[in-house]
């Protein structure tokens, strides 16, 4: 790069389990030890390396072929000055597999962060989020029937993620909000519907719904209405059409996927702000 004074690109491709994620980390580690060392470089290098545990927690999952499979695409810029010092970075993410939030095939898991939070979060944190220390309690975590995997240590990974968030300069307020959103998705998955005499969806137990509304800061009655009724607006009035149970489940899952997808995008944007060349 210094000789040609030009951008260079490294494209990493291959089938699942080939080692794309590990290869990209090795390249970053190579830059970290081979580039000139300055205070700025060390800061950028640390943030660049520490973005990995966070992105893997929120964007990677156990699949049949790979225990740490990236379920999103990543394009990463590392910005160097004319001396070869790394002065900034930027990540572009695309095609996050949001469907995994609400459904996993047999032998696969949801995204790592859910298991890390339940297994590794402190008792106080779990109490604040209304969570139990039992992954089997959550519908969104158990469909693959392999929530606990011997090769994955969720408690240790949780500590790595918490440490990485501090290096990337996430303050306590943002970190708490982030975990509240993650917890809200777990509660949303446990919202169950009953049918009335006409086959329309009813919410009899509001405990999980109240946790979702509290964690997201939204009105519980509006949330309940949104999950059980379709709102049809005409020029002069609004009509509420009740959902069947199948429709209500579809809407619940769509909301969970949307919340998680937006959160992942927000997370990448925050990492980019932290690594931006000032």
From TrEMBL:
<keyword id="KW-0547">Nucleotide-binding</keyword>
<protein>
    <submittedName>
        <fullName>Unconventional myosin-Ih</fullName>
    </submittedName>
</protein>
<dbReference type="InterPro" id="IPR001609">
    <property type="entry name" value="Myosin_head_motor_dom-like"/>
</dbReference>
<dbReference type="InterPro" id="IPR036961">
    <property type="entry name" value="Kinesin_motor_dom_sf"/>
</dbReference>
<keyword id="KW-0505">Motor protein</keyword>
<keyword id="KW-0067">ATP-binding</keyword>
<keyword id="KW-0518">Myosin</keyword>
<feature type="binding site">
    <location>
        <begin position="14"/>
        <end position="21"/>
    </location>
    <ligand>
        <name>ATP</name>
    </ligand>
</feature>
<dbReference type="InterPro" id="IPR027417">
    <property type="entry name" value="P-loop_NTPase"/>
</dbReference>
<feature type="domain" description="Myosin motor">
    <location>
        <begin position="1"/>
        <end position="278"/>
    </location>
</feature>
<comment type="similarity">
    <text>Belongs to the TRAFAC class myosin-kinesin ATPase superfamily. Myosin family.</text>
</comment>
<keyword id="KW-0009">Actin-binding</keyword>
<dbReference type="Pfam" id="PF00063">
    <property type="entry name" value="Myosin_head"/>
</dbReference>
